[in-house]
Amino acid sequence: MKRIFSTEIFKRFYTLKSHKIYSLPIAILMPHSRCNCKCVMCDIWKGNKNVKELSENDIKEMLESFEILKTKLVVMSGGEALMHPNFFRLCDILKSKKISIAILSTGLLLKKYVNEIIEKTDEVIVSLDGSKEVHDIIRNIPNAYDKLKEGVQELKSLDPNFRVTARCVIQKENYYDLPNIIEAAHEIGLDQIGFLTADVTTDAFNRPEPWVDEKVDEVSLSIDELQHFKETINSLLQTHSKDFKNKFIAESPEKIKNFYNYYAAFHGLCDFPPIKCNAPWVSAVVEADGSVRPCFFHAVSGNISDNSFSDILNSESSISFRKSLDVASNPVCKKCVCSLNLSPFAKL
């Protein structure tokens, strides 16, 4: 069967070849710097007293860049994106250019804004950290699980076809709860759940600098915990084979097995799992203060208050960064927990 190469697909291919961004399918925006949870594996909530946020004008000024770069999807990240005081106005601005919107959410505010979410966005991705008790402990918020469940079920009652998925960060406080997390996702009524390991090595997510060893030990798995984790994974592959087969679990069994290797690598037991990623060529992150990064984990490349989004992405230094970036050997990439490898043919 012959593939039909549209102009957009050609631009995606040429971006990968030339390292100049001709097509940027995905933009990730952090509308503000607040969160309504206090998770141990994330420091965004620590900035709640020093709030920064993207304005309506910031979004309007990025529209031209989005149009030039044929951006199809904007992911509203956080923190909790729904806490932005003018969040749905930002959505209206993006929708004026027919850009799809996905929200990353703690789930605590879904019920409050259920009608606006259905009307003005296209997908919600919630954070689910465990069965009820485990989730509430990790979120450090009373009744967080129940509020998440109520919000998802309210969305589904109003529009059964509205896509609501979850992501779960596997770490010290929930690795043993892995099978129960999947059962909780079914109970809540989610369409799918995906997993990732915890970032314990970078300054992402509002860390002024990378964590010290004591903090890393609070989140990463110890050698003693690793054996239990391996046994949990092996059991999961048997008991939840149907969930892997029908893609209710987004990751393949091989990728879930690599979660063990990720944490084992910190103890010198194996190498970090190999990474395939083209995130800096197909996406970019705009933080609440306007800083632009090629992904969550690499250094800031500019600020939208100084230059346009597209000019930052195609500055001499940004192109040079992409040309020299060897994902297989780069020390940041080698320990990445959230890689993206988007084919030029992928539909968003």
Report on the structure:
The protein contains 15 helices and nine strands. It has 348 residues and is of the alpha/beta class. The chain has a nine-stranded mixed β-sheet with strand order 6-5-4-3-2-1-7-8-9. The radius of gyration is 20 Å and the shape is globular. The model has no long low-confidence stretch (mean pLDDT 93).
Taken in chain order, the helices and strands follow as: HEHEHEHEHHEHEHHHHHEEEHHH
The Rg value, from CA coordinates, equals 20 Å
Number of beta strands: 9
Number of helices: 15
The average pLDDT value, as a whole number, equals 93
The parts where pLDDT drops under 50 for at least 5 residues are: none
The description of the largest β-sheet is: 9 strands, mixed
Strand order of the largest sheet: 6-5-4-3-2-1-7-8-9
Q: Share of helix among residues?
A: 25-40%
Secondary structure topology:
Layout: H1 7-18, E1 26-29, H2 56-68, E2 73-76, H3 87-95, E3 100-105, H4 114-120, E4 123-127, H5 132-139, H6 144-158, E5 163-170, H7 178-188, E6 192-197, H8 213-219, H9 223-239, H10 241-245, H11 253-265, H12 279-282, E7 283-286, E8 291-293, E9 302-303, H13 309-313, H14 316-324, H15 331-334
Helix pairs in contact: 2-3, 4-6, 9-11
